[in-house]
Every structure is written in C-alpha cells, then in structure tokens.
Amino acid sequence: MKNKSNNNYTMKKILLLIVAFASISQVHAQDANNSFSLKQAIEFAMSNQPNVKNAVLDEAIAKKKVDEITGIGTPQITGSADLNKFIDIPTSFVPAQFFGGKAGEFFPVQFGQPYTASAGLTATQLLFDGSYLVGLQATKTYTELSRKATVQTKTETAVNVSKAYYGALVADARLLIIDANIDRVTKLYNDTKALNDNGLVEKIDVDRLELTLNNLKVEKEKVERFKQLSYALLKFQMGYDNSKALTLTDKLDESILVVASLPDSVDYNKRPEFGVVNIQRQLQALDLKRTKAGYYPSLVAFGTASANASRSEFNIFNTDYRWFPTVSAGLKLNVPIWDGLQRHSQIAQSKLTLNKIDNAMTLMKNGFALDYENAYNDAQADWITNRLNLYNVNTLEGRERREQPDTRSGEA
Fold this sequence. Notes:
Blueprint: H1 2-34, E1 35-36, H2 38-48, H3 50-71, E2 76-85, E3 91-95, E4 106-110, E5 115-128, H4 130-197, H5 203-238, E6 247-248, H6 272-293, E7 298-311, E8 324-334, H7 342-403, H8 408-411
Parallel strand pairs: 1-6
Antiparallel strand pairs: 2-5, 3-4, 5-7, 7-8
Helix pairs in contact: 2-4, 3-4, 4-5, 4-6, 4-7, 6-7
C-alpha cells in the first residue's frame, strides 16, 4: 500500500510538472508573437496592413484588366438557340389575281408552321482598330502604374511604422525618466519633511518639493496617456490587433542619433509618388492618342453557321426530320464620317487633363523642395532631442547600477 501511495504521488508530481512546462511554453510563445523589433514590425505591416493588402490586390486587378483588354483582339465566338410556338401563325397578303381575283386586291394567307427552332454560331475577328492598338500599348504602362502604386504604399507604410515605433520608444523612455524623477523627488521630499519635523529646514522648502512632486505625478499621467496613444498608433500602422499586447525589443541607442545624410539636391525620379504621377501622365497621353485613333476605320471579319427547323407538331428534336443549314462569312468595315464633334470634344478634354497633370507635377516638385528643407531642419532637431533622451536614459541606468549592492564579497 505504501509503494502504491508513493507511485500515485510521483505520478501527480510528473503531471504537475508537465502542465507547468506547457503553461510556461505557451507564455513564451505568446511573448514571442507579441514582441517586435523595428524590422519585424515593418515586415508584419507588409503582410497585414490593409492599405498594403489593398495595393497588392489593385496590382492583381490591373493584371486581369490587361488580360481583358488583350482578349478584345482574339476571336470572339458566341452561340445562340431559340424555340418558338406560334399561337397564331403570322398573316401575309398576296395579290388576289394569283387566285383568279381582281387586280389590285389582296388575299390574306398564313405561311409557316406553328413550331420553329434555330441554332447557330457566330465568330468575329478584329483585323484592324486604331483605338485597340493604342490600348495594347497602354497595357504595359498601366501595369507599371499599379506596380509603382504598390511600391509607394509599401514605402509610406514602412516610414509610418518607423515613425510610430520610434515614438513608442520615446514614450517608454520619457515614462522611465519621469518615474526616476518621481522616486528621486519623493525621497528628497521625505528627507526634507523629516528635517522640517526636527526644525532644521523651513516649511516652505517642504511645500516647494511637494508642489514639484505633484506636478511630476500630473506629468506622468500625461506621459502614460501619450504612451498609450503611441502604441495604439503603432498598432494601427502595422495592421496589428489593437486589443493585443505589444512589446518592443529595440531600445534607444546610438543608432538612432545619426543625422540622415541628405543629398545636395532633390532627385524627383527617386520619389515613388512622383513616379506614380509620371505614369499617370503617360497613360493620359496614350488616352489622347487612342481618342485620335477613333477617326481611323476599323475592319472586322465574321462568320456565321446556323440551322433552322419548322414543324407542324412539337417534334423539333426528332432526328427523322431535317434541319436546314445556313453558312455565311464576310468582312465589315466601319468608317467614321460625322459624330457631331463628340470625338473633337473628347480630344480637347484629354489635352486639358494633360495640362492639369503637368501643373500637379510642378506643384509636387516644389513640394519636394520644401520637404527637403524641412527634413534637414527636422533631422537637426531630432538629433538634439534624441541625444538628450539617450543621455537621460543612460544616466538613469548608470545610477541604478551604482545603487545596486555589491554581492561579490558575500559570494567570496
């Protein structure tokens, strides 16, 4: 009985250890899933940010649109079939003199049978159309536009995630610094209050420290709200679930204090948003060319094959009765002659739209120049702010290390 009791006790210990190990593993797995470096945050955003996902979908839609346009120039085949039942056979009029009547009079007669059916195929092939040829030229440009739009969205998302990640790091640092200041002032307040109780310092010194301490506590509440907002913004930019916890593995260090080396001049062609507008201008120019090509004739080849049946009874599908075939082929030439100046107005609209795009590109270039100046000034200001934050954090960590008791003598 004793051995059996010991065995049960041992089994319970093993089960408890297994459960504890599984729980610890689950916690570590959750922590790993919720912890992100800046690089990991950007990679997460590339797969989960809705704007990036929509940009990828737009690129896929653009490719299918190109397939749609290309398909216009391939053979088009359609089939048709119909089945009719005449409740009353159509009436025709024939000259009465055919049946011995007077000239100038007509007799009503009914030709045909109550059941008719037909089935056929029609095939067309576009041989020449200036608008279609220009459309084919535009497909490559259209695909390039969607690709550049995706690159622009990913670039903007990476920048936004980087800014939000840095803002969250700064919020963590500010909260760490203000907690340390509160601890320092609290200790100073308690020491000064004790001195005041012994009559060694004035009451006003205690009141000043109390006011400072209260202001720090109010400032801490502001910093905590700023931290919550910073993390919420980072989750939004990443496409991360706002209800889940998020841990940042990167820290403030010297790597963020490097002032960005700005070029001597602005290279517009390296800006993805400028590339998108430039592609849009090319598409608009092709649209103008397509509209002008509408003045050219178009040529289409066609062919039809059909069969018809007529019955006095409903036996359309009886193979003992004949179907009568009809086959034809030909060419169809369309020559635009007069359209009420519609195409002329469309060409004028396309030219005006081109002028608008040119104006937008000029405005964008001026905006890039302004961004360049602001970027340089912001880089200098950020460098000073980052240096101050890092100095405060390093000072705080150094103070904490100095205040830790030395346990080496005890070990010895």
